[in-house]
Amino acid sequence: MSILVCLDPGHGGGDSGAVGFSLKEKEVCLDLAYRIERQLHYYDGIRVTMTRSLDVDKSPYERSRWANSQQADLFLSIHTNASSDPSETGFSSYVSVIAGSHARRIQCWLHNRIASFLRTFGIMDLGKKNDTETDDGKLTELRQVEMPAITLGSLFITHAKDNVLLRDASFRDEYAKCIAQGIANIYRCRPKL
To answer: I want to staple 126 with a disulfide (CB 3.0 to 4.6 A). Which of 9, 26, 78, 92 is the partner?
Structure first.
């Protein structure tokens, strides 16, 4: 069995996303996507495509159109959380409020794996959410794709401790490895020998 994972590094180009302590969300998302891509290549039966591989503007419609044209099996959008309250911290994941049970099961399995990993760093699990629980009330790309789609809200870029972790290359490597292992386990893909 072969699966195609579409990684969607959030923001890009003129859209920096959230900024915390001079760290830009768009840069964190792209770096994490590359690290996840490298980790996924260690598994049999997993191919990877990305909605952007450079610092360029891509609308939610362009992102979902790309994933659909590639006929991906999973769409994973990578973001950080942010808040005007510098004490807010934690990890969350999102699916579209109209997502089916298959997407929700994948969200549950992947979320639980990531939350368990992040707990070792003292990061709070903010829960599995619907896109209606975001600031904008929906995540367009999750609603436009034709495959299971999940958005990860990876730590708070605006929280001092979370920001230190997001800056740390070794943390990003371990985080990417956790996500890749979670995806491989969901699709029962074994490590390459």
So the answer is: 92
Strands 74-81 and 149-156: parallel
**Residues 120-162: pLDDT tens digits?**
999 999 999 999 998 787 899 999 999 999 999 999 999 999 9
User: Residues 52-99: pLDDT tens digits?
Assistant: 999 999 999 999 999 999 999 999 999 999 999 999 999 999 999 999
Query: Is 126 buried (19+), middle (13-18) or exposed (0-12) by CB count in 10 A?
Result: middle
Query: Rounded to two decimals, what is the model's pTM?
Result: 0.96
CB 93, CB 165: distance < 8 Å? no
